[in-house]
Amino acid sequence: MKTLPLLTSIATLAVSSTSFGATVTLQLQADLLKDQNGTVAPSAMLWFLVASTLDTSFSALSNDISTAIGTPISSGSDDLIIAKGAIGVGGFGDGTISTTLAGLDLQGAAFGGVSSNFSSGDPIQLYWLPAVASNSSTVPALSRYGTYRDAVGIDGSGIWTTPAGGGSRSLGFYTSDGDTLGPGTNTAVAGRSILTTPAPEPGSLALLTVGIVGLASRRRRRAK
Ligand SMILES: [Ca+2]
Asked: How far is ligand 1, taken at its centre, from the CA of residue 38, in Å?
């Protein structure tokens, strides 16, 4: 049992070297999320929360990134996906979100452990993709999406930043046409998905074409 004191001192060291510590809880509510034309976003489509870990700005959402927790939303970005889910969660129907994200470990393995760049007060932004299923493992090229964050705390929302370790924060987004959790003071247009992820890279498109042509010719050879 000589290893026990060593383990204890390692644990103490790990706790004392983190400024953030512990897990956080985020309560997220949104009403009403729509596509680019104003049609209500269907349930079971994807949303995620992103935290900007090093600065106060958010990069544009890249195409073909993974939707895994901890992924930067574009190459080299400090903006990391910290949570995700399905539109309609909470039972208020299409275009809404009502969920409690408890036990979010922002210094867990998904974020590089205690060396991660998270600190309390990191800006948080919501992304919703009304045509991408919530179980999609990637964000496709040319996906429509909307974003929202509230730096002030309107309609009873908390400020959209990470709370201190162990703390919780309520993040609310309510538009004037919200009809179950809202309405709120955000315009109806604020709930639209006015942004689009980039088109596929020309290089990967060419590779894809080569691959498809290759497959097709192989099938033709097999058929003969
Ligand atoms: Ca950033």
From this structure: 28
pLDDT reading at 121 higher than 70: yes
Rounded to whole angstroms, the Cα distance separating 158 from 205 reads 43
How far away, in angstroms, is 59 Cα from ligand 1 center?
Answer: 6
Distance (angstroms) between ligand 1 centre and the Cα of 81 equals 11
- CA 82 to centroid of ligand 1, rounded, Å: 13
223 alpha carbon – ligand 1 mean position (Å): 53
How far does the centroid of ligand 1 lie from the alpha carbon of residue 78, in Å? 5
pLDDT exceeds cutoff 90 at 205: no
Q: How close is the Cα of 221 to the center of ligand 1, in Å?
A: 51
Give distance in angstroms: CA of 87 to centre of ligand 1.
24
- Three state DSSP letters for the chain: CCHHHHHHHHHHHHHHCCCCCCCEEEEEEEECCECCCCCECCCCEEEEEEEECCCCCCCCCCCCCECCCCCECCCCCCEEEEEEEECCCCCCCCCEEEEEEEEECCCCHHHCHHHCCCCCCCEEEEEEEEEEECCCCECCCCCEEEEECCCCCCCCCCCCECCCCCCEEEEEEEECCCCCCCCCCECHHHHCCCEECCCCCHHHHHHHHHHHHHHHHHHHHHHC
Residue-wise pLDDT for 148-183, tens only, equals 999 999 999 999 999 999 999 999 999 999 999 999
